[in-house]
Amino acid sequence: MIRALFTSATGMQAQQLNLDVVANNLANVNTTGFKRSRVDFQDLLYQTMRPAGTRSGSVEVPTGVQVGHGTRPVATQKIFAQGNFLQTENPLDLVIEGDGFFQVARPDGSLAYTRAGSFKRDSQGQIVNSDGLVLQPAVTIPPDAGNVSISSDGAISVTTAAGAAPQQLGQIELARFVNPAGLNAVGRNLFLPTAASGTATTGQASQQGMGSISQGFLESSNVSVVEEMVGMIAAQRAFEVNSKAIKTADEMLQIANGVVR
């Protein structure tokens, strides 16, 4: 009964983390480029009271006696499934159809990676994200630029005068990782590489396994409200049943303590 108390406590702690992850998914249902997370659990150590295959007299016992000690969360995995596309008609709103990340330069000079393609122009004409981080490789759009056109392979072209031929200013490069689930999410729609994700492989869009770029669209969050609500109900019920197991074990201990010889 004492074992049941601690085992049920691990279940309650695990479901609390599960609910925290579900709550974060739901909070970011409208966050551009957001990728939902999932909690992975595994069971804890088992106490073996009788190993399987032991002999009882002249016969071999086919199954043993083992009692588990609960569960624990081992990972919160990002699910990089494609989100829905929203048409904005903003020329600097970009979406990646397929694999890949946009690259932006952080203030310390290091690169961060994002799926959020809501870009703007700063005071110098550079293409930046909402936090002012410059898209890499850096491209500066001249003040007299007319239409900005970005092709599916990331080539950026502008027209500077009526009837003039488009002038190519630069090329957007995408990055991809062997294990994107191993990336470190640091907030602000940014990811940083880790030893688990591997180093970034960069290249032109629509080539070498990279996705293509579509102009005038944004990728919405891949969170499904219905799925998260179901997961929230399941976490609540699992938390509730573990609390009832603690209550039952406590009542059994109370009965045992009240036994009078």
For the structure shown, list the relevant keywords.
alpha+beta; 32% strand; 2 helices; 261 residues
What do these coordinates show?
There is one protein chain. The protein is α+β, with helices and mostly antiparallel strands and 261 residues long. The protein has helices at 2-27, 225-257, and strands at residues 37-43, 46-50, 55-56, 59-60, 65-68, 71-78, 85-87, 94-97, 102-105, 111-114, 120-121, 127-128, 134-136, 148-150, 155-158, 167-171, 173-176, 184-187, 190-192, 201-204, 212-215, 217-219. A 3-stranded antiparallel β-sheet has the order 10-9-13, with no helix packed on it. A 3-stranded antiparallel β-sheet has the order 14-15-16, with no helix packed on it.
Output mean pLDDT.
Answer: 91
Largest sheet: 3 strands, antiparallel
- Please provide the count of β strands: 22
> Which strands sit side by side, in order, in the main sheet?
10-9-13
Overall geometric form:
elongated
Tell me the series of helices and strands, N- to C-terminal: HEEEEEEEEEEEEEEEEEEEEEEH
Number of discrete domains: 2
Extract low-pLDDT stretches: none
Helix content: 10-25%
Q: Which class of secondary structure composition applies to the elements?
A: alpha+beta
Cα distance spanning the termini: 20 Å
Number of helices: 2
Strand content: 25-35%
Q: Short description, anyone?
A:
The chain is an alpha+beta fold and 261 residues long. It has helices spanning 2-27, 225-257; strands at 37-43, 46-50, 55-56, 59-60, 65-68, 71-78, 85-87, 94-97, 102-105, 111-114, 120-121, 127-128, 134-136, 148-150, 155-158, 167-171, 173-176, 184-187, 190-192, 201-204, 212-215, 217-219. The chain has 2 helices and 22 strands.
